[in-house]
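Annual report, structural modelling task.

Input specification for the 2-acetamido-2-deoxy-beta-D-glucopyranose complex:
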Amino acid sequence: MSKLLLFVACVLLVNIVTADIYLHNPRGNNNRNCERGENRQNENRLFDSENNAKGGYACPRTRGVAFTPQMYYYQGSQLQVEWSQQHACGGNVNCQIVLQYMCEDTAPYIRDGIPTDITDGTGTNTPTAADINNPDVGFNESPSNLARCKARQRNGGLYTADQTINGQSAVFTRQNPNGQTSGLECQEERDYYPYWHPSPWKDIAIFTTNVTMCPYYQAESQNVMSKGECVKANGDPLSFNQRQTCLSGNGIWNVTEPYNIAPPDCLPITNVASRDNHLGSVLGGQLAGYNWTIPNDIRNTCVLRIRYNISSSDFNNWEIDSSKNGANAPVKDRPYMDFGLSQPLGMAINTDQLGRTFQDRTYTFGIKQRPSNIRFYDKIYNLNVRGKRGNIVQTFPAVEYDFVPNFLMVQGGDYVHLQWTGSDYNPNRNPNDGEGGPFEGSDRHNFVQTDSLTANIPRLVQNANMFKLENGDVNATLFQRLALLDQNVRECLNITALRAKNNNNEDAAGRDRLNCGKLNNVGVYFDAGLIRQVVSGKFSYMSTRNNNFSNRSQKGLLVVQNGWYNSAYSNKNTQLALVVAVLVAVIMVL
Ligand SMILES: *[C@@H]1O[C@H](CO)[C@@H](O)[C@H](O)[C@H]1NC(C)=O
Ligand SMILES: *[C@@H]1O[C@H](CO)[C@@H](O)[C@H](O)[C@H]1NC(C)=O
Ligand SMILES: *[C@@H]1O[C@H](CO)[C@@H](O)[C@H](O)[C@H]1NC(C)=O
Ligand SMILES: *[C@@H]1O[C@H](CO)[C@@H](O)[C@H](O)[C@H]1NC(C)=O
Ligand SMILES: *[C@@H]1O[C@H](CO)[C@@H](O)[C@H](O)[C@H]1NC(C)=O
Ligand SMILES: *[C@@H]1O[C@H](CO)[C@@H](O)[C@H](O)[C@H]1NC(C)=O
Ligand SMILES: *[C@@H]1O[C@H](CO)[C@@H](O)[C@H](O)[C@H]1NC(C)=O
Ligand SMILES: *[C@@H]1O[C@H](CO)[C@@H](O)[C@H](O)[C@H]1NC(C)=O
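The model returned the following structure:
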């Protein structure tokens, strides 16, 4: 075979990665940044996802500005985390889904990285300690995380099947026998949960096919359990991975205290059970999801991580250990097996992947303290946007623009935190695959009330009756802001002028920065802040830019129960009716 062919074969092999788990809210990067390609550029930028290169959201940045605000959530607010996963979890595979987060307190260098231009590859390389001073480069875990993993002996009791493990440190595992590193993640920690050494991740929730494991997960979580590792007096890592050998090797067994937070939620996988070969909805017709109550961990920079671990029942994955390694492996790599037929049959099984973990992580977000006027028992619901620019085929895994949650029910007095982000760094999509500009890869959203979910034209703003103020008035400023964002409308041109400016090229006029009707004159991030819900009713809404009847729909429904006003009447009408009723009564009495 020529070298070229060999190279092509290797590339093909590397790319035979099936689609697997993708976070949609908050947005998962799948190792993308601002590279603007169809496929993410570096699959090992921050972590090992094992996902398809087409997945992931482009960096949440506006082109041409130095700084784009990041998403943030108020402590105690409810965030609907949403993802899609590929296999028949709980049906045809054993499954475990682990949700975690970490912030700068346990991961001091955490950041997305801001490559300075679209071709700047630096931002997509696996970082080294020297890159801390290069703002282009992203970090999740700290350099010491990988250094300690590389120094530490891998757990020799683990089942590695018939794989040849090419090294002795904890970056070498059954799933990663060649010791490929991905960002500053520790491979052994990635592949196993709960992990037995310290990790910077705090646990949120676990979904499992076997809920009898829940007490074990909850007891072994670093939220509640201390974890040790072997170091020298100066803190440099040593190779010993057990307390006894560490001490006899003159090391210090350094114990990291538990995070002292509640143990993770542990839930049956049936809550998010999916079907095979499908990256869409689960039972109930929505994406797989979890309502995360944002912890009281006020931080500037956090990342959410989801891992998805699938295994087969051809042997007991939890009990199997190193005694079944090598020749004793119950299943061999790419086996041809004799079932008593006249000829053995070949099984498409790789033992490094029979039992496999997939992963996605979000871009950074902040956790903010609740404003002091919001009482601790007032509920806050996050209302955001998912999906990226493109048609159904281009938005792999087929997630076009949508609000999330697109159905939200709250009680009078609750707050909705309406906020979204997007990117100017999607691959170029021509006008028929996404509306507006200012770039061919730009996402923008807005929010207007409609008469019903089946309507596609906004209601006149003077008839708006959602989001009323506590005195029952419509806040016209708010509707102006939700519809036109923070565009400087004085700069805008009307469509006649835009067409003239762009030689009657409708597409170019649609992308012109001064086309405020397409929301081109503003950045990707928008925050409406907290909006108190005082009016009862069912309120439908949409985005005028992205809702394109028969081709794309971006709509949602907000239901408010037990509000202070009824949506059918404005407060003023009610007051008027009262005055009239009192007058009538007085007249009748007279
Ligand atoms: C995945 O499942 C295996 C058992 O099949 C278990 O040993 C491992 O800890 C799990 N890893 C993760 C990340 O959940
Ligand atoms: C479920 O977990 C329990 C407790 O760890 C274990 O005894 C049992 O074998 C597991 N069942 C399956 C089907 O893995
Ligand atoms: C032991 O671990 C703690 C974190 O839990 C760390 O702050 C400390 O520096 C470590 N000590 C040594 C000697 O490495
Ligand atoms: C989250 O909570 C809302 C109620 O606020 C509920 O309608 C929704 O189904 C929940 N989502 C998930 C994934 O549990
Ligand atoms: C709506 O989408 C279609 C196809 O995706 C596109 O051809 C059309 O231009 C879009 N509509 C408008 C009003 O731009
Ligand atoms: C009306 O909405 C605007 C824009 O969100 C906001 O700044 C203002 O405080 C609101 N007015 C009242 C009275 O709440
Ligand atoms: C559009 O803008 C131009 C120049 O600003 C102005 O002359 C024209 O009257 C406007 N047309 C409409 C229909 O408002
Ligand atoms: C929807 O897409 C079709 C086919 O691309 C196009 O003919 C039609 O005009 C689009 N609808 C709108 C509202 O643009």
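The radius of gyration is 27 Å.
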